[in-house]
């Protein structure tokens, strides 16, 4: 097969082309950075890639903040127990003679800032080089930026026993204020556990808005205590409804992951009340 035939075969095979692209990007990235953070930070400075041990008693100190406290507990558990093994192990050896990293200190400028559109989500993360300090520092304007910094830190830890990237300086902030996902639970019902899994994945990708399109003409799965018949007649089934407690749980879970939950409820009028009209017509003809 000639080189031209080989090229034609490659570009006519999308799967092979994507595989080659992935391998190429991975190899190029591995040359410069043994571990890559996703999404790519605004500034990633790692002049001498190396790793140091993570202390078995690793601690995270942070200001008092209800939602951040939950995030800190979650990330500490991930950092100390996940034992991630990269697909391509970093070529840089562990600096075993360096003292282990014992703590991460979080500093927040404004602990009262709510999670609203345009909130400051920037952060800086500094991990000392080998034979340096045993403390890393995460500084953010708000708790929401600190959560993104914790996600970044967690991606710099791998192996069993855990080791962490050393001599790293990162400053990061999102390019877009609104980084969201829309899910329509009117046309296709998803259980609460699936919505929580989606929010968890959004947090891992530093996304911040879950646009929840709950109701539409297809179904009305939201239980409203003042009008229970809306869900009673409008949901796909008895096991395909969201209670008030379900909504509270999803919204609270989102806050703990730095994700705003924006519920959207279409009013049951004209087009959006078609299922009620159909129900009334059927009941009329059946005489019930």
SSE blueprint and pairings:
Blueprint: H1 3-11, H2 14-32, E1 43-45, E2 50-61, H3 66-81, E3 101-108, E4 123-127, E5 135-140, H4 143-155, E6 157-158, E7 163-166, E8 168-172, E9 180-184, H5 192-204, E10 209-215, H6 228-234, H7 244-256, E11 260-265, H8 274-286
Parallel strand pairs: 2-3, 3-5, 9-10, 10-11
Antiparallel strand pairs: 1-8, 2-7, 4-5, 4-8, 6-7
Helix pairs in contact: 3-4, 5-7
Largest β sheet strand count, sense and barrel closure: 8 strands, mixed
Shape: elongated
Mean pLDDT: 87
CATH superfamily of the largest domain: Chitobiase/beta-hexosaminidase domain 2-like
By secondary-structure content and strand pairing, the structural class works out as alpha/beta
Question: Total number of helical segments?
Answer: 8
Widest beta sheet: strand line-up: 1-8-4-5-3-2-7-6
CATH classification, class level of the largest domain:
Alpha Beta
N→C terminal distance: 75 Å
- Helix content bin: 25-40%
What's the count of strands? 11
Give the ordered list of helices and strands. HHEEHEEEHEEEEHEHHEH
Please tell me the total number of domains. 2
CATH architecture of the largest domain: 2-Layer Sandwich
What does the radius of gyration come to? 25 Å
Q: What is the third-level CATH name, the topology of the largest domain?
A: Chitobiase, domain 2
Which residues sit in consecutive blocks of at least 5 with pLDDT less than 50? Answer: 26-31
Percent of residues in β-strands? 15-25%
């Amino acid at each position: 097969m000639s080189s031209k035939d080989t090229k034609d075969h490659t570009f006519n095979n999308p799967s092979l082309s994507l595989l080659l692209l992935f391998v190429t990007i991975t190899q190029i990235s591995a040359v410069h950075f043994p571990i890559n953070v996703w999404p790519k930070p605004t500034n990633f400075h790692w002049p001498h890639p190396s790793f140091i041990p993570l202390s078995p008693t690793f601690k995270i100190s942070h200001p008092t903040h209800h939602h951040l406290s939950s995030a800190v507990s979650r990330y500490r558990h991930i950092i100390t127990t996940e034992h991630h093994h990269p697909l391509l192990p970093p070529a840089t050896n562990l600096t075993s003679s360096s003292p282990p990293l014992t703590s991460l200190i979080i500093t927040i400028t404004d602990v009262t800032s709510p999670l609203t559109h345009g909130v400051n989500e920037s952060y800086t993360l500094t991990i000392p080089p080998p034979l340096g300090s045993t403390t890393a520092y995460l500084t953010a304007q708000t708790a929401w930026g600190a959560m993104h910094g914790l996600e970044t830190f967690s991606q710099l830890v791998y192996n069993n026993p855990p080791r962490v990237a050393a001599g790293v300086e990162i400053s990061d902030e999102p390019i877009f204020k609104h980084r969201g996902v829309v899910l329509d639970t009117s046309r296709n019902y998803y259980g609460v556990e699936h919505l929580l899994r989606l929010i968890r994945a959004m947090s891992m990708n530093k996304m911040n808005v879950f646009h929840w399109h709950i109701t539409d003409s297809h179904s009305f799965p939201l239980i409203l205590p003042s009008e229970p018949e809306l869900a009673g007649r409008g949901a796909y089934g008895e096991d395909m409804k969201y209670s008030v407690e379900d909504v509270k749980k999803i919204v609270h879970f989102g806050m703990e992951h730095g994700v705003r939950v924006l519920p959207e409820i279409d009013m049951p009028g004209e087009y959006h009340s078609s299922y009620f009209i159909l129900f009334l017509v059927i009941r009329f003809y059946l005489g019930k």
